[in-house]
Design brief:
By secondary structure, the protein is α/β, with parallel strands linked by helices. It has one domain: Alpha/Beta hydrolase fold, catalytic domain (Rossmann fold). It has 13 helices and 14 strands. The strands form 4 sheets. An 8-stranded mixed beta sheet has the order 1-14-13-12-9-6-5-4, with helices on both faces. One of its GO terms (molecular function) is phospholipase A1 activity. Its main location: plastid. It is found in: Plastid, Chloroplast.
Length: about 425
């Protein structure tokens, strides 16, 4: 299947968002919520391109396969289906949780680890009622050395695995295993984004998939191991395969799905893991009947990961990828080497949100920008309510600009 792209341009005002920004009054609260109903009878207002609801009934449990991309999101993206929009937001909130719990303090004993334990993590970020329980923290190691950078080859926390509770299973129609990855925050991770060399995706030495190649920096993050780490044992890949295998075996008698969510670099790791799951057959629960678990990737602002053969192999394996991108986000154009445009391709269906008319590229990559705009899409925005909100925009952009400038001056790989 060829990659598909849809561009959504809202009737609402065009506003930029930043991670620490406060929502305007007209947007209401940012509490973690669910849509439990779907219109029983719906039609499209052709003048506004917005769904019109006549009656509702509970049906996420009935429609979850379509929402997870079973039919490649046909007729759900243009216009954006309200249930799909809420699921995008719901999964995106798991990524924002990653940033909220990460310890950025270099003097802390938990630097680049989480501030909280697994049991309390979701509660500490205001997601106690989200219907999931964290089962595993995931760590990764960028095997990249940069002069004058102390954290280049150390293991760091990159995400978590969570599974839906019994009560949530009733609402969503299946046992959902969610694996969430944060995006780029340190210099070595940015280097991984900017690397443009392709390398064979030899994840399993017993399987030789012809000409399937992926970006070397992302593969390094996924497969490298820090033997001195006090937080984890094994590579990111080892940890993920072990936990997914355990959970699939635990719930093998139930209807299940595997959902991988990531932002920026995390989107790349999510896609690599999805490919790994399907290639190894970890999602096959009944070989005789050919029954397999649906594997879906929600990618927020993710770069390109591999070549055309990688894309085609992902499609052959039945991996479903929904790429949520801002058309002005430069990270989605990476890797950007001399020959990258001809070597790298995106995987899956693209939901292109055209929500910026800004020249500063650093303002367009923040995960909360994506989520808050998706939440606002299709609603009326009172411009007068955005003044205080806009005063807080830009801190994240400033940090990214400073980091990129520093890398340009001091990037010496060894």
């Amino acid at each position: 299947m060829a990659s598909t792209s849809f561009t959504l341009k809202p009737n609402a005002c065009l506003i930029s968002f930043s991670r620490n920004a406060r929502l305007p009054k007209s947007m209401g609260t940012c509490s973690f919520g669910h849509i439990t109903t779907l219109p029983k009878s719906m039609c499209i207002n052709t003048s506004t391109n917005i769904w019109v609801v006549h009656a509702v009934e509970t049906c996420l449990a009935k429609m979850w396969r379509e929402i997870q991309g079973f039919n490649n999101w046909d007729d759900l993206i243009e216009p954006l289906h309200p249930l799909l929009r809420e699921e995008i937001i719901r999964y995106g909130e798991f990524v924002t949780a990653c940033y909220k719990v990460l310890d950025f303090n270099p003097t802390s004993s938990r630097y680049l680890n989480t501030k909280y334990g697994k049991r309390n993590m979701l509660r500490r970020v205001g997601m106690e009622g989200c219907g999931y329980e964290v089962t595993k923290y995931i760590y990764a190691t960028p095997n990249i050395k940069i002069l004058n950078q102390a954290d280049t080859c150390t293991s760091r926390w990159v995400g978590f695995v969570a599974v839906s509770t019994d009560e949530e299973v009733k609402r969503i129609g299946r046992r959902d295993v969610v694996v969430t990855f944060r995006g780029t925050v340190t210099a070595p991770e940015w280097v991984a984004n900017f690397m443009s060399s392709l390398t064979p995706a030899m994840l399993d030495p017993n399987r030789n998939v012809h000409n399937v190649m992926v970006e070397s920096g992302f593969l390094s993050m996924y497969t490298s191991c820090d033997s001195t780490s006090k937080f984890n044992v094994g590579s990111c890949r080892d940890q993920l395969i072990s936990e997914i295998s355990r959970l699939v075996n635990m719930f093998k008698g139930e209807e299940m799905s595997i959902t991988l969510v990531g932002h920026s670099m995390g989107s790349s790791i999510a896609l690599l893991f999805a490919y790994d799951i399907a290639e190894l057959g970890l999602n096959i629960v009944d070989m005789r009947k050919g029954r397999s678990l649906q594997v879906t990737v929600y990618s927020f602002g993710g770069p390109r990961v591999g070549n055309t053969q990688f894309k085609e192999r992902c499609e052959e394996l039945g991996i479903k990828v929904l790429r949520i991108v801002n058309v002005k986000d430069p990270v989605t154009k990476l890797p950007a080497g001399l020959y990258s445009w001809s070597c790298y391709v995106h995987v899956g269906v693209e939901l292109a949100l055209d929500f910026f008319k800004m020249e500063n590229p650093a303002d367009v990559h923040d995960i909360e920008t994506y989520i808050k705009y998706t939440r606002c899409f299709g609603s009326a925005c009172d411009r007068s309510d955005w003044a205080d909100f806009l005063d807080n925009v830009g801190q994240t952009a400033k940090n990214i600009r400073n980091l990129v400038q520093s890398l340009r001056k001091n990037m010496f790989l060894r």
